[in-house]
Automatic annotation (TrEMBL):
Main localization of the protein described in the UniProt heading: membrane
One term of GO molecular function: succinate dehydrogenase (quinone) activity
Stated name of the protein: Succinate dehydrogenase subunit C
Native source species: Oceanithermus profundus (strain DSM 14977 / NBRC 100410 / VKM B-2274 / 506)
Localization, UniProt: Membrane
Assigned EC number: 1.3.5.1
Length: 120
């Protein structure tokens, strides 16, 4: 079911997105901790993270959370139904389709904002 097939790719992506979400949360907690040292430090960090590269990173985090959540639902279906493991390949393709349907409009909305084309 897994070796070199869809299940293995789903597994790898699930682990990678989980680590990415963890790293984001660690950075976010550090950013919030800076607020305890005063507005000067907090504002400097927020200004640093407002650069386009970090904004693209946030778009990546949105994608990671979305994929991780959808694939997590696929894993639940596989674990708690009698038919889930038989359908795991189709379920993963369903995850990819749902991901694309939800993430592409998000990118279309957010990318212009990052590069100054969107009106706040």
């Amino acid at each position: 079911m897994y070796r070199g097939r869809e299940g293995q790719w789903a597994f790898y992506l699930h682990r990678i997105t989980g680590v990415a979400i963890l790293l984001y949360l660690l950075v976010h907690v550090g950013e919030l901790t800076a607020a305890m040292f005063g507005a000067k430090y907090s504002n400097a960090i927020l200004e640093f993270f407002h650069q386009p590269l970090f904004q693209l990173g946030l778009l990546g985090v949105i994608g990671a959370v979305l994929y991780h959540a959808l694939n997590g639902l696929r894993i639940l279906i596989m674990d708690f139904t009698s038919w889930g493991t038989r359908m795991q390949q189709k379920l993963w393709y369903g995850v990819l389709v749902l991901f694309a349907l939800l993430y592409i409009p998000t990118m279309i909305k957010i990318l212009p904002e990052i590069f100054g084309g969107g009106g706040h």
